[in-house]
Amino acid sequence: MGGYYGLVFLVVFTLIPARCDESCGGRDGRAGEAGAPGRDGYPGAKGEEGETAVMLEGPVDEVVLRRLKGEAGGRGQQGGMGPKGYQGHLGAAGQPGEPGRPGVEGKGIISGGQGAQMARSAFSAIRTHNSYPGFGQPITYGPAVVNTPEGDDKDFNEATGHFTCRVPGVYYFTFHSMAKVSMCLNIASQALTNSLGFCDYNRNTDQVLSGGVVLQLTAGQKVWLESFRDQQRPDEFRDSRDKQIIFSGFLLF
């Protein structure tokens, strides 16, 4: 009988642990990547109030001193003035204020506090006479046509021919004369360095002479009119016909 005879091979593998030396060690792994930032945590609870600071005897740590509140120090010296700031814009106009109270009553310009209505001065006097006025002497007059103020306080004296300044100020003085002969007249005053003279030598008709001046006077200064000798003929001084002279003056301001 025939048959097949197989060969059976039994192979046995035995795993024997191998021995590793230093050359077969593994490599370290690399570090991982940083993660995303985490969210903020919830606010913590309020802490308890600390104890009141107590002044200790002996040396104290500087850190502790900084934390302690000290007493207020003295006022320091004033610093220098800073630079001037820029000018601001002009503001809108304000509302009109209320009317003020009436002021005290004013006084006149006369010393002594007299009323302003007394600050007046004016005169006009006329001399009608047949004699020639004396040389270098104030001409006198009859009763004045105008002499303000009147009474004992009048500024012009007809008997002496002097105007005496009572109210300091600026005055205007003028004169007019009419005669049959030549005549020379001066406006004289303590306010003038020299007398102010006027003459008329026209012998063919009635002689009309006039002159005027503005003077700044102080209290007490005088102004008057006087005749002076110049080119008149000797027979003119003996003339007996009427001669008229008008002297006037008044306060301007």
UniProtKB/TrEMBL annotation:
One of its GO terms (biological process) is complement activation, classical pathway. SUPFAM superfamilies: TNF-like (SSF49842). InterPro entries: C1q_dom, Collagen/C1q_domain, Tumour_necrosis_fac-like_dom. GO terms for cellular component: collagen trimer. It comes from the Eukaryota. Keywords: Complement pathway, Disulfide bond, Extracellular matrix, Glycoprotein, Hydroxylation, Immunity, Innate immunity, Repeat, Secreted, Signal. The keyword Secreted applies. This is C1q domain-containing protein. It comes from Pogonophryne albipinna.
